[in-house]
Amino acid sequence: MGNDLESRFRRIIKSHSVRYPLMKCTDIYKLIYQAAMGSAHRVRSIDSVRKHFEEEISSIGIGPVEPVVDPIAHDGSILRINIRPYLRAGCNPEKLIEAFVRTGNEYTGSTGKLELYCWWLIRMKEEGLLPDGLRAIEQYLDAIAESDYPAVHHSSIYRNAYSPSYRVIASVLIRELEVIQ
Questions:
Q1: d(CA 177, CA 50)
Q2: pLDDT surpasses 50 at 1
Q3: Where are the domains of the chain?
Q4: Order of strands across the sheet with 78-82?
Q5: From CA 22, how far away is CA 108, in angstroms rounded?
């Protein structure tokens, strides 16, 4: 992989570190996990996804200033669609639900890509490019690797500070969302 791809990855990490300064190791890992593996949610029932989505938006709190479309994979293949700005822009919630379901059922993640992201993240730490809250990232990632790279939840600090509300989708589906980028 070329230097340009790693520099894209670094820009994503720096952007999230600035936007979410209270981010912990589990939060940065969740970001790179989703970037490599997609949503990691196989969907059996679109109705249950729709119900959960409706419950989430009915109680959605105030969050940080976020873009509607937030590329999280270095190659642009995976995006987070932030729900607050998505709804404020008048976008169709049903189209987001459909894109989320399709991504969950059709996108095949890559453990190799996740391992590459871990390596790049450790290089950033060694170069002093990560915030203090991520000082233990190398030990965290070692433990995660030993557990075969499981999906994780955001830290309670992150959840309380930022009220994350997004859906992970494959970028090939962005046109279907009719989002102005």
A1: 16
A2: no
A3: 3-177
A4: 69-71, 78-82, 166-170
A5: 30
Rounded CA separation 60/76 (Å): 27
> What pTM, to 2 d.p., does this model score?
0.93
- As a whole number of angstroms, the distance between CA 156 and CA 142 comes to 22
CA 104 to mean position of chain CA atoms: 13
Burial status of residue 141 (CB atoms within 10 A of its CB: 0-12, 13-18, 19 or more): buried
Instruction: Return d(Cα 33, Cα 109) in angstroms, integer.
Output: 9
Residue 94: phi, psi to the nearest 5?
-65, -35
Query: Residue 113 corresponds to which tokens in the numbers above?
Result: 């890509």
Name the nearest CA neighbour of 15 among 89, 68, 67.
67
